From TrEMBL:
Keywords noted in UniProt: Acyltransferase, Lipid biosynthesis, Lipid metabolism, Membrane, Phospholipid biosynthesis, Phospholipid metabolism, Transferase, Transmembrane, Transmembrane helix
Pfam families: Acyltransf_C (PF16076), Acyltransferase (PF01553)
Chain ranges passing through the membrane: 20-42, 54-75, 343-366
Family from the record: Belongs to the 1-acyl-sn-glycerol-3-phosphate acyltransferase family.
Name this polypeptide is given: Acyl-CoA:lysophosphatidylglycerol acyltransferase 1
Keyword Transcription regulation: no
Annotated ranges, domain Phospholipid/glycerol acyltransferase: 95-219
Gene: LPGAT1
Naturally occurring in which organism (per UniProt): Odocoileus virginianus (White-tailed deer)
InterPro entries recorded: Acyltransf_C, Plipid/glycerol_acylTrfase
Gene Ontology terms, MF aspect: acyltransferase activity
Amino acid sequence: MAVTLEEAPWLGWILVKALMRFAFMVANNLVAIPSYVCYIIVLLPLRLLDSKRFWYLEGMMYKWLLGMVASWGWYAGYTVMEWGEDIKTISEDEAVMLVNHQATGDVCTLMMCLQDKGLVVAQMMWLMDHIFKYTNFGIVSLIHGDFFIRQGKSHRDQQLLLLKKHLENNYRSRDRKWIVLFPEGGFLRKRRETSQSFAKKNNLPFLTHVTLPRVGATKIILRALVARQENGSPAGGDTKELDNKSKGLQWIIDTTIAYPKAEPIDIQTWILGYRKPAVTHVHYRIFPVKDVPLETDDLSDWLYQRFIEKEDLLSHFYETGAFPPHKGHNEAVSREMTLSNMWIFLIQSFAFLSGYMWYNIFQYFYHCLF
């Protein structure tokens, strides 16, 4: 497409701005991620003495790192509007988020909109594609205890066993509270045709804006983390003991992400900021886990129904520009999510000052040794 003389200055500015943003992102990663790793190494003795305090400090640094990623989109004008139920009310309880997946920007969107939900981000565990292990953020996620899942039928059973073991070893021992899961098992554009073919063969609804979810990971999470009742008392101990330790997984948050004109934001756009400012819309519905069936067939039906409802929510949004009102309400209420510019300034300053400090420390030891 030819560029007119009127458009040339604007396109030139977009290119310069994208290069500047990319340079800042690289610098941000070069100081923040090594600093995080260095602080973790220094704090390792605390892990032996006071594990809970160690994971609290690690979680706060993890939250700051995700806040930096959120800030890249925030300053490009990519903001979030929240709809539905207020998930702040359950921020101290254990919950699992079931999220539709359209693009890599979904992860960045969640990093942004969960920043003002107390300690949720600090105590969160992500289930993400194994390819993320090999990105710049992979070392951070490995330390934090996120789970990298390998897609494909040939890996499925093994991955579910690994997930069960990972939850048993890392979830409560690291004081995790929330889990983020994308049950569709891939991006919408990649899975839509396969999902529609499966739906046709099994007499299931034909979905366009979401795909039919895979039940395996959800089943493992619920069975591993829900505090079951046996003979009137919680499994694994009495009521008092369970209250002191954990009440178990209490909520499922059905999370639906919608982009204007159904044009999702990817990670490249989030970093470079070459698209015009846009508002991403996130809708929440909260379900008590006690109302969710744990048996495979019933859980599959329950999960399918949630994604059929997501389809309806997204259809309504793309037609009207808004989500429908919550049941029992006449009007849908939206809430603009904001990030504090002062808080962003403080965490970015801490990252760059930490990077400068660690550079000088290593430089000192290098000169002492060599």
